[in-house]
Design a protein that fits this description.
CATH superfamily of the largest domain: Zn peptidases
Bound molecules: zinc ion
CATH class of the largest domain: Alpha Beta
Number of helices: 11
């Protein structure tokens, strides 16, 4: 494909490293939403948008846009700029910089497109400052930002509404952030898992973003003296919980591409010399098929309640549920074709992590392109993507954008 300009992966990587130096913590990267550090990063991105020939603007939620010329419905390309605590330099921002490199190259070679392309850098995807408000930026764009969440608080007790206002954005004008003029959405993201690297494939075309459920299970036994209560007269809640936990991997394996993780435990009273009287567990379960997700949730609940036959009290409560998102077949096919024509290997895959893309997929045709990251590591300082992999993803994106916005009026 001669029409696609070459892209310098080292250029992308240098900018990612520059952004990663802007952190709210001195020893690790954390860029929480609506902080001075996030604003500093946004200003830097904005200056790069302008250098690339994009017209910048910010919406009421703090999402930063850069727009090409052209008329008609908009092709939106984006990802998020907030990070988890102790993050790497690539999650989210790699997608923004790949989009920027693609648009900069296309604008330099061909001038403005027939139909507009916008690049967006979105706020609060991770929910690392406001855990209940993850996907806040994309939700605002899609008109799904629940105003009730404006009163949720960060660890310091600051509400989302206050944080937005202090950062210069406007909770009351949030409805203005909504877009009804989008034709489609593209997101480039590091895989955050080991599959591409393991199989030696250069790019992943995501068909489905897996669905997610969270279940809270509380198991009540009886707190007793650890020295005086014989082993066969105890009702140890942690022993019950442990038996439940041991069943979870087999439950996950009984569904295709499902995972179950029990990563959060609270033991009461939590003393070495007291038989645990009560245990609270949070179980995260995921599956790409909506029926599997529902059944898996039911089986986990059943496994928990089966402890009742041993005398334990069991209360289960669903905490969160996000259905799987099917991405657009035609856009996926276009990315696959562009990859092939540029001589890149690609494979279809499922995303086990959530992305802004899954929200867009509910309203407009959406596509998610994965590039490999070393060792599959992510959400940690070791996160790394090679310049040639960044460049490949940006070039395939550029080829798809060229066809949709430059070639076809
Ligand atoms: Zn991300």
């Amino acid at each position: 494909m001669d029409c696609v300009p070459s892209i310098d992966g080292a250029w992308i990587q240098r900018r990612l490293e520059e952004l990663a130096h802007i952190s709210a913590l001195t020893d690790r990267l954390w860029r929480p939403s609506y902080t001075p550090q996030e604003e500093q990063a946004r200003c830097l991105l904005e200056s790069w948008f302008v250098q690339a020939g994009l017209s910048p603007r910010r919406d009421a939620a703090g999402n930063l846009y850069g727009r090409t010329g052209g008329t008609g419905r908009v092709t939106l390309v984006g990802s998020h700029m907030d990070t988890v605590k102790g993050a790497g330099a690539y999650d989210g921002t790699a997608g923004i910089l790949c989009g920027l490199a693609a648009l900069q190259a296309l604008l330099a070679q061909y001038g403005p497109p027939h139909t507009p392309v916008e690049l967006v850098s979105m706020v609060e995807e991770e929910g690392s400052r406001f855990s209940d408000a993850s996907f806040w930026g994309s939700r605002s764009i899609l008109g799904q930002a629940d105003p009730a969440l404006l009163s949720c608080r960060d660890e310091e007790g600051i509400t989302l509404a206050r944080a937005m206002t202090d950062a210069g954005y406007s909770p009351s004008r949030l409805p203005e952030a909504r877009r009804d003029d989008l034709a489609r959405y593209f997101e480039v993201h590091i895989e955050q898992g080991p599959i591409l690297e393991h199989r030696g494939v250069q790019l992943g075309i995501v068909d489905t973003i897996t669905g997610l459920g969270t279940l809270e299970a509380e198991i009540t036994g009886r707190a007793d003296h650890a020295g005086t209560t014989p082993m066969d007269l105890r009702l140890d809640a942690l022993q019950g919980a442990a038996r439940l936990i041991l069943q979870l991997p087999d439950l996950a394996r009984s569904f295709r591409n499902a995972t179950v993780t029990a990563g959060s435990f609270q033991v009461f009273p939590g003393s070495a010399n007291v038989v645990p009287g009560r245990v609270s567990i949070l179980v995260d379960y995921r599956a790409p098929d909506p029926r599997d997700l529902e059944q898996l949730g039911r089986k986990i609940r059943q496994a928990a309640h089966s402890l009742e036959t041993e005398g334990f009290g069991v209360v289960t409560q669903p905490r969160m549920s996000v259905p799987p998102a099917r991405l657009d077949k035609a856009l996926g096919h276009l990315l696959e074709q562009c990859a092939q024509e540029l001589g890149c290997s690609s494979m279809h895959m499922i995303s086990g992590a959530g992305h802004d893309c899954q929200l867009f997929a509910g309203q407009v045709p959406s596509a998610l392109l994965f590039l490999p990251c070393r060792g599959g590591r992510s959400h940690c300082p070791e996160e790394y993507a090679a310049p040639e992999d960044l460049a490949r993803a940006a070039r395939v994106l550029a080829a798809a954008l060229y066809r949709l916005a430059w070639q076809h009026p």
